[in-house]
Amino acid sequence: MRTLLYLLLAPALFAQPAPSDELWTAIEPIYAKTLEHPFLKGLTDGSLPPERFHYYLQQDAAYLDAFSQALLDLAAKAPKREWAETLRRHAKEAIAAEKKVPPAPMAPVNYAYANHFRVAVANGAFAEGLAALLPCYWIYQEVGRELIRKGSKRPDYQKWIDNYAGEEYAKSVRQVLAMYNAEAPKLTAAQRARCRELFVLSARYEYLFWDMAWRQEQWLP
User: Fold this and answer.
1) How does the average pLDDT of the chain come out, rounded?
2) Please, which residues have CB within 8 angstroms of residue 4's CB and are 6 or more apart in sequence?
3) Lowest-confidence region among 9-23, 106-120, 185-199
4) Which of 98, 128, 136, 195 is catalytic?
5) Concatenated DSSP letters of 1-17
6) Among 98, 128, 183, 206, which one carries the catalytic annotation?
7) Inside any domain, residue 202
């Protein structure tokens, strides 16, 4: 009986953490601070002013344009054909989402964030470029899951929350995490450290993106 129980529990007892777990651990303080931001709190309690949400949507449309191009560039470096096809499909989906709202000229934080991941994709190995793009996928999924527990009284805010808490979006996140987890064991320690550095920097930019929308950031005249 004990032997049978051991055999049943053994896979769970000796399961190794995925390489992506190391990335998330590195941003836990950033993510905790993100959840406390008044922009996200305002989505659920309805206190977020509509003009700030509209500003966010316009900036997000501009961001998605850059993000979709980065996905296409990363697809060209993909070591597997199916990965390239998946990334190209994600790029097409990002472009479709971007067309729902007319984009505004990029605000300073948006411009800096886009430049960061473009450079990472252009100059780094596949895993490095992927690590720079991963927080956009992963943090939005976790934020969606957190906010859906509270819900929103505003239908437009609830629709936004539902999108990122949904299974369709979760499927896309699982796909890119699987890519990273498959590539990471092949990397040197220095390359893993570089991926972590890029991931953390992108997570910081994700926080700043919310803050940018809250402040409705503008360029100096």
Assistant:
1) 93
2) none
3) 9-23
4) 136
5) -HHHHHHHHHHHHTPPP
6) 206
7) yes
